[in-house]
Structure formats: structure tokens, C-alpha cells
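Hello again,

I reread your note about wanting to compare the complex against the isolated chains. To keep things tidy I'm splitting this into two emails, and this first one only covers the full assembly. Below are the input lines as submitted, including protein chains and any nucleic acid or small-molecule components. They are followed by the predicted structure of everything together. The single-chain runs will come separately.
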Amino acid sequence: MTLAGHFSYFATIFLMVAGLYIVIARGNLIKKLVGLAVFQTSVYLLYIAPGKLIGGTAPIIAEGFQVYSNPLPHVLILTAIVVGVATLALGLALAVRIQEAYESIEEDEILARDEADGDAGAR
Amino acid sequence: MESTIINVLLILMAAAVTVLARTRNLFAVVVLFSIYSFLMATAMVALDAVDVAMTEASVGAGISTVLLLAALSLCRSQEAGGGQPTWLPLALACTCGLLLVYGTLGLPAFSDPDAPVHTHVARRYIELGQAETGVPNTVTAVLASYRGFDTLGEVLVIFTAGVGIVALLRRRRAGGGGR
Amino acid sequence: MKSYLILRVVAKLLIPFVLMFALYVQFHGDYGPGGGFQAGVILAAGIIFYALIYGLADARRIAPDWVVELLLAAGVLLYAGVGVAGILLGGNFLDYFVLAADPVRGQLRGILLVEAGVGMTVCGVMLKIFYMFAGRGEAQR
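Full-complex prediction:
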């Protein structure tokens, strides 16, 4: 267990923690979605970095190469990237609808307006 | 040399995300996210994941940025709000990070040929992929043939996302914007 | 943005190459990096580029809504159809070796059709999402 051997893991964890912090600490909906996207892309790194072999090449069979990097994580992450953009698009569509309904995409203002409407409805 | 390039790219990505977390202007946030996606795509090329790099560059730095900018222009919000105490989320995130670091101490080192991920079914795909499917690109062979069922599920997911967005953002004919 | 000469000229020069590159990536996914996902996204990006420079109405003229929706659904149907064809020809769901006399040629045929289906759906969905977002903005003004 050396720093050089595990540096990619530490970088991945830093990106993951940064994405998580942006999601839970910021109140703007679009910034939260960007934080979620950062979190997702750090997970791609978590899968692909262990598949790399120094001195190997991309997993496309060709003359003259013997060592290939592992193709299995690439397949999983290809699917994950496209699913990630699909969820980002859905989240953004929800944010647009919230903006039209509440005139704001800041979490505090939305909650305050909900509570004000709730009090007005109860009376 | 390869490890140095990968490590430098990882440090640049970490710097981009740190600046992104502290920026208030949403347009700058979207541009920084696009920069981060490009750096991720470059790191993927350095890690020999060329298919993933092409997808990340086109999807992450292309389509995601366009969609974020479109949503930003619709929401008309320029600055993210601030003022809440952020030491509790920071402490929570750091605790999660320390637990994850403890978890990764037992994982195999970078570029270890004896790691379990290299010794089971991946070896079979590399050795027999071209003979069985006729396709030199092992990633395409695994994606479309060996694990074709998963790819069908993924196509269905992206189809459902498209249908969901049509349902959310559709304009009704009579009565203006749907509520 | 149509009034900016440089943007218009550069768009006219680049967009044919972008579309051609998308087709190249789709069909050369077997021999190099590429495949259905990347090709669908690059094709959608080319048309989105056109829509950004020349306006949404012009883009809707070259890629009308019904064509995009047809592309969306046809891709999924093609993929599932290849699977069902595997059952009808004697194998299991999504078996490719029954699609031709020689099993390896059957694999190649199956992979080609399946990647085409994936490319069509991904392109259709990305374009539809862009049309939805941009169309919402136009209706608000």
C-alpha cells in the first residue's frame, strides 16, 4: 500500500466527496445537479483506473500488441455515462418546471413559499 | 511516465472541482463543469479507455453543457444564494471521505497484473473475442454481443428518459402552459 | 446568431464533416473506438449546432418532430426485433449466431443491426430533449 499505488483511488474519493458536498451544502437546484454529475463522473474513474495496465494498450485487438487493458469496466461505464446524462436531463426538466411554478430555484425560497401557501391554505 | 500524466490530470480535475464548489455565478459553474468533463475525457485516453473517452467527451462536455445552458437560460437565475453555515455538510462529507479511504486501503495497487479484475472473465473476452464475434474492438464485442441484454436495458432507459422529458415539458394545446 | 458572418461560414464548413464523422464512428465501431452511443450523440450535436446558429425553426425544417420521434422508437424496436428474430430462427432471445448460415457472420450482422438501433435511439432522444428545452423557452417569450 503506497501513495503511488493508491493515488488514483484518493483522487477519486476527493472528487466524490466534493460532489457530495456540493449536493448537500448548496441550495441552488442547478448547482445541486452539477454536483450530482461530478459525483457520477468520479465513479467512472473508480471503475476504469483499476483496469489500466501500464505498458498495455486500448482493448482493440491489433498486430504487434500483447498486453491489453481490461475491456470489462469500459462496457459498464459506457452505459453509465449515457444513463447519467438521461438523469441529468430529467433533473433539469424538473428544475425548469419548479422555476415556472415557484418563480425561483433556490431551496430556501421554495420552502418558504410552500410554508406560506400552507398557512394560507390552512386558514 | 504514463502514471505521471494520469496523476497530473487527476490533480487538475480536483482543482477544477474545488473552484466549481466555491463559485457562485452559475454560468461559470457550467463552464467549469465542461472543463472538468474534458479533463476526464483526457484522463480516460491516458487510462486506455478510448471508447469511454469518446463518449465522455461528446456526452459530458457536449450534450450536458448544452442542456445545462438551456436550463439556465430558462431559469433565469444568475447567482447561487449563500449565507448558510456549511461546516456540518463539510464535516459529513469529510467523514464519508475518510471512511472511503479506509475502505480502499485493501484494494489492489494501480496497474497490478495479478488483481482479480484481470484474471477471470476479461481474459476470455480478450483472447476469444475476435474469434467468436469477428470484431476486433473487444469493447464493442462485449457491449453488443456478450452483454447485449444489458445494452437493451440501457437503450430502454434512455428511451424512458426521453419520454419522461416530453411528458414534463410538453405544452398543452388549449390553456397555455400545462400545470 | 445568423447575423454573425464568421459563425455562419464556420457552421456551413463544419457541419457536413460532423455528420460524416458521426456515420464513420457508427460503422467503424467494430474496428476502432466508436459505436452506437458515440455516433448518435455526435449526429445530434451536429444538428444542435445547426439549430444554435440558424434558429430552431430552420432546424425543425431539416429534422422535423415526427422524424425525431420515429427515430427514437424505431431504434428500440430494431434492437428488440433482432432479439425476437433470434427466437424465431431457433435460438434464444438476442442470439446472433442463428441470423446467418455462418455463426461469425451472424454475429457481425447482429452487432451491426443492434448498434444501428442504439445509434438511432440515442440521436433521437438527444434531439428531442434539446427541442423540448428550446421550445419551452420560445413559448415563454
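For quick reference: Residues 1 and 145 of chain B are 35 Å apart (CA to CA).

B.
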